[in-house]
Every structure is written in C-alpha cells, then in structure tokens.
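Help! Submission page says 'invalid entity' but I think these are all valid:
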Amino acid sequence: MYNASDLRKGLKIQIDGNPFIVTDFEFSKPGKGQALYRCKMRNMISGNQFTQTYRSNDKFEKADLEERKMQYLYNQENDYYFMDIESYEQIFITKEQLGGNINFLIDNMELQVLLFGGKPIDVSLPIFVNLVVTKADPWAKGDTSGTDTKPVTVETGYVLQVPPFVEEGEKIQIDTRTGQYVTRVKE
Amino acid sequence: MRAALFRLVRSFFAGLGFLEVDTPVRQPVIIPEKNIVPLQSGNWFLQASPELCMKRLLAAGCEKVFQICPCFRAEERGRLHLQEFAMLEWYRRGGDYTDLMMDCHALLVFIKENLQKEFPGECSCLHTSSLYGGGAVDVAREGRRLTVEEAFQRFSPVSLQQALETDRFEELLVENVEPHLGWDVPFFLYDYPRELASLAKYKSENSQVAERFELYISGVELANGFSELTDADEQRRRFESEIQYICENNQYATAMPERFLQALDNLEAAAGAAFGLDRLFMLILGKGNLDEAVTFSPSDL
C-alpha cells in the first residue's frame, strides 16, 4: 500500500481494478490545516484522465505491474507476438494497443513489455532503433536550393523526413520518442 | 538580494525596539499540533516553529523579541513547501492580532522601499508571481481584510459552517478562496474557526472564533499570527486533545510541554506572528516555486 505522502509524478497505483499513473501532482497545505494532495491521473489502459484531491490518511493499492524483457517475433494480422527472453513464454499484443510503436518494430528486437495483472498493456522500445531505408528519391547532387529534407520509407513502412543525402539501402537511426531521424549508420 | 532582505527584516524590527534572539532549533518537547508532523533528530525534534521558547522569553520578562531561524516540517514538499525553511517570528507583550497585521503591513512597505533603493530597476518588489501572468501588488496601499466566514461567503460554493461540518475546509480554502486573495494589495484573512487555532485566544464576544489571521499576497499564504492564549489551564486542555489525536493516529510519541505551560502563568496579554521568508523572497523575485528562492533547494544537495 502507498500513503498519500508517497504520491508523486510518475507513481503507479490501482483504483477500482485499473492501473493509473500520476501525471501531475501538487502538494498544498494551508497553515495549521490538513495536507492536500492534488493529483491528475491517467488510466494506463484506456488513457482516460481525471483529477482528484487526496488527504494524508488516504491509502492506495500498488498497481500490479511487471516489466519483462521480451523479443518481438512476428505478427499475424492484428496480433503481434512476443517471447519472454527468460521463460520463452509467448504472448501477443494487438495492433491497437501498440499504436505508433509498430512503426519501429523489427524481427528479433528486444524490448520491455509492461504487464498489468499478467496481461500486456504497453511496450517500451529502445530509445534509438536502426532501420533500413527501403524507398528514397535519389539525391540530386549540387541541388543546394529548396528544402533541407526529403521523405523516405523504412523497412517497417514508416515514412519520415531525412536530409537529402540519405539513400535507398542505407541504415538510419531513429529516435522512437519523437519518430525523427538522428543520423546515418555505417556498418 | 536574499541577504539584503534578511538584513532589512532585522533592521525593521531593531528599529521598533525588538530584541533579536536565538533559541535552540533542536528540542526535547514540541508543540503538539495534529496537522504538523515534526522531523525527528535522535530522541528529540527539530522545531516546526520557535514559538514555545519565544513565548517563554516573553514570560521571563522580555518585552518584544524576534528571530529568523530554520524550521522543519516532515512530509511537506511542494511548490510552496520545503521541509526546511526560513521563518521570521516576532512576539510582544501586550497588543493583539490587529497590531500584528499593522506590523506585517509596515514590514512589507519598509522592505519594498529599501529594496527598490538598493536594487533600482531590478525589483519592483512583490510581483504577482510570473506563474499567474505578472503584475505588481501595491504593498504601500492599505490591505484588504475579510473574516474567514465572509471569505467563504464570497468565494466558496458552501458556507464556512458547511465546509467545517463536511470536513472540506482546507480543500475549499485552497481551491476556491486562496486564489482570490492579495492580487492588488496585501490581504488579511482573519477570525479563524476555533478548532483551527490551538494556541490563539478566542474572541471575547464570540468564543467560536479565534483571534488569528493570515497574510496573503498573490494567493500565497505568507504569515500567520494571533493574539496569544495565555491561560495555562485552557492551553493544557487544548494540547491534551491534540496529543490524543496524534497518539490515536500513531504519528509520533509526544509529551506535554510542561515548562512552557508553567511559563504561561507569568504571561498576560501577548501577540505573535510567523512569516515565511522564503515565500516572501519568491514573490519578490516574481517566481512561482520556492526552490527558486533558496540558496540550495533539496535537488541541489
């Protein structure tokens, strides 16, 4: 159990069977009065948010969350299969749950899967991934005019803006937090 | 500028004939207050306020005393709270809470005028915090005053009476009342419900209300003061009920401040106030977070 004084940004608690993360937190206490803990929370499954003020004697259940290191195997239509690196247990996560993460998933990639009550609810990708450019317009050398970037497609089908010198078949590094190009990777 | 602020506070009180004192920060017995959790230091405590020792000095014969000292409160940490903070407290024999409100006002004017001289252009002094869009509070003009009951009538969806009965006083104060206080001139909220003032004297014409006030600027609570309760028997009864609450809620082991109660027998009318200097300095800088007003914030250590 957590006490109100444990509340802080990022704390994960369980309310009515759902995992919530504290996204915003403010402590206040009028002189001689009781302490108040105002929290903005986000449901970690549905994404719904709400704000609530708690008191010193309020208690909170810890969210039954577990992070496990897994390897991405393959997808079958909307189901994406992962394997626990230690136990070899396999699970799947739906495309909908993965959201934008599917743009950066490649076979055999290792990542952290977040489970709530044993069920997968989210994945955290490595911050940087290296992906092969599968489609790019050729660089018109000497073309110093115009835009500084051009669109390319990478092996996952994701399209992003890169500097004009990046060519088809090259590997580039992408920041998965922003989805943006970082650098070319030489192997 | 922080050094200048502290120096000005000292010269303000010296000018009024107050004696600067220093009392132990670490004490074996502290004020039992249910909503203030002390930090422990070995078997003793770090003070949450120098109140007990300063009132003992009055009882021992001092007329007017003040001090600037560190105070400590466990579990208090936020935009406007640090576990260790700089407190200014002053106490005088005779007088009541209306004198303290005048002291507060005169102190603000003194600080403003002198800081403006010393830091021309740099400090218009007591901005509204930049968090709320800036603009200065004119401390030279007379402050506004409302009783707690009037303030609840004006700003809260329910009356003070209802707020107390449903145990929503703090919540409504913080969310509905405080944000309105002290945006153009300093604001004094006064006459607190008796249960929220365990060391203050009740009003003689209405014992439901204690002679206690709080000073607000830009919605920030800056100072708290009251006409001191000097009836040792009454004070003992109030401490007993606080101690009972603290024991029942298993907060920490506490004892009756016997030597303080003995001293109260030698004290007649008195009044004293506590002023958060870090918060004042934060407002002078126009900042919205105490961490920006102290020399080292906890995250700097």
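Support: the input was valid. A stray whitespace character was the problem, and the output above is from the cleaned input. The first helix of chain B runs from residue 2 to 15.
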